[in-house]
Amino acid sequence: MDVVVDAFNAFSELLTSIVFFAPTVGGVKVPLIVVWLVVAGSFFTVWLGFMNLRGFKHAIDLVKGKYSDPDDAGEVTHFQALATAVSGTVGLGNIAGVAVAISLGGPGATLWMILAGFVGMSTKMAECTLGVKFRREHADGTVSGGPMFYLRDALALNGRGKLGKFLAACFAVCMIGGSLGGGNMFQSNQATAQIIEVTGGQDGALGGLAWLIGVIFAVLVGAVIIGGIKSIAKVTEKIVPFMAAVYVSACLIVIFSNFSSIPSAAGDIFTGAFTGPGIVGGAVGALLVGFQRAAFSNEAGLGSAAVAHSAVKTKEPATEGFVALLEPFIDTIVICTMTALTIVITGAWRDPDAPDIGGVKLTSRAFESVLPWFPVVLAIAVVMFAFSTMISWSYYGMKATAYLFGESKKTEVIFKVIFVIFTVIGSAAALGPVIDFSDSMIFLMGVFNIIGLYFLAKVIRTTISSYYARIQSGEIKEFADR
After folding, report:
1. Is residue 16 part of a domain?
2. In this structure, what CATH number is given to the domain that contains residue 33?
3. Mean per-residue pLDDT, 266-275
4. What DSSP line would sit under 119-171, residue for residue?
């Protein structure tokens, strides 16, 4: 067994060093996977004519249901698809990652995070449009979609069938690994740690009972995922708005309690973004350290959200592209920015020991300056974020498994059982090598997915432009006016 463990640890270390290879440029380590994702976002922002700005209002209208036809094929509404995808992205990166970024690069890191979120809106739009366009609709009304399908089927139509099959298979394997690791074990591990911390630590009532907390998590997760995407969507459409409202409200309380400091904080953010420390914090902190722990926070370019959005009720693939652009806006531009403002305005980032304090603790310290009881709220937020991430990633992993081994109830049940077992293991185990491995798998998804997106760039632009032109001309009307 020791030989197997040692071999896995060595392979995990090798894979991590390859995926997160970061040559030093001008004294700054630049991780190539970060460049890969940000360049893709920038390309599609320009390629789609800044549709992430022009189409923002229409995205809101779609989420409100103004263009929704309940008789369209699919399993969930636009809002439910959005909530499910957001629940898979909002996590510790929004709390801990932002704090790490600012402690490394100062307030200026905030502006670079916002920029990353802005270009990420376009990547999300591209991949989720394809997710619906090339999904599979089954006789029982269920739907299967995501990068596995558009990489295989769309590239085959372009005369690149072998490449498409290769990319799709590699993507599916990586999604399964990411689902069990970063999307499950890491989440249960960190949520368990927070619960034990606020109940007195290892000497408290739950000290030494991490396995029991894991079992409870497994039961709750199992109860939700047993019903598939419809069950998951019903939970996420309630939990996501609630947890976002609680967290953002706490941020606003702290911000407005320091109202007089807002102008100077805003000045620090804008001026600091163009200093040496600001750039380092944005590129290395915000994009690498912070977003790595939550799959680049909004997962733009990784392809995971396209799996959830593929299940939406619609006949127009581009509709879900518009809805999906709201994810990075909510996750990064709103929630991450709220965390950043809280840390900057309270001055917590100025602590000389800030880089060594740790992300969650630094954020907690900022909140404690106004809300002494905030560690409890933070623990609740972490648990809710973790739970919502787990149920969303269970669906992603299940669909990837079905793609590789066939669509069947047996395949679904086997994966779900394995998933909840890994939830318990994650709560009680030391996860260093496992998380390094699963993080690598998650980011490799982005490599395979974005290669396909570049090949399919013309299809993406034609689909979105055609739909938006029909919206602008009035050819496509709101459902109430039909």
Report:
1. no
2. 1.20.1740.10
3. 74
4. HHHHHHHHHHHHHHHT-EE-TTS-EE-SHHHIIIIIHHHTT-HHHHHHHHHHH
d(CA 390, CA 419) in angstroms, rounded, equals 9
- pLDDT recorded at residue 3: 63
Burial of 478 (0-12, 13-18, 19+ CB in 10 A): middle
What's the pLDDT at 285? 46
pLDDT of residue 295: 43
Q: If you average pLDDT over residues 234-240, what whole number do you get?
A: 79
The mean pLDDT value for 70-86 works out to 81
Q: What DSSP state is assigned to residue 372?
A: T
> pLDDT for 404-446, tens place per residue?
998 888 888 898 889 988 888 888 776 666 667 777 888 889 9
Whether 19 is covered by a domain: the verdict is no
CA distance 12 to 18: 10
Q: Is residue 8 part of a domain?
A: no
Domain count, the chain: 1
What angle separates helix 109-133 from helix 457-473, to the nearest 10 degrees?
90
Cβ-contact 250, 242 below 8 angstroms: no
Rounded mean pLDDT, 298-323: 88
DSSP single-letter state for residue 24: E
Host domain of residue 314: 27-481
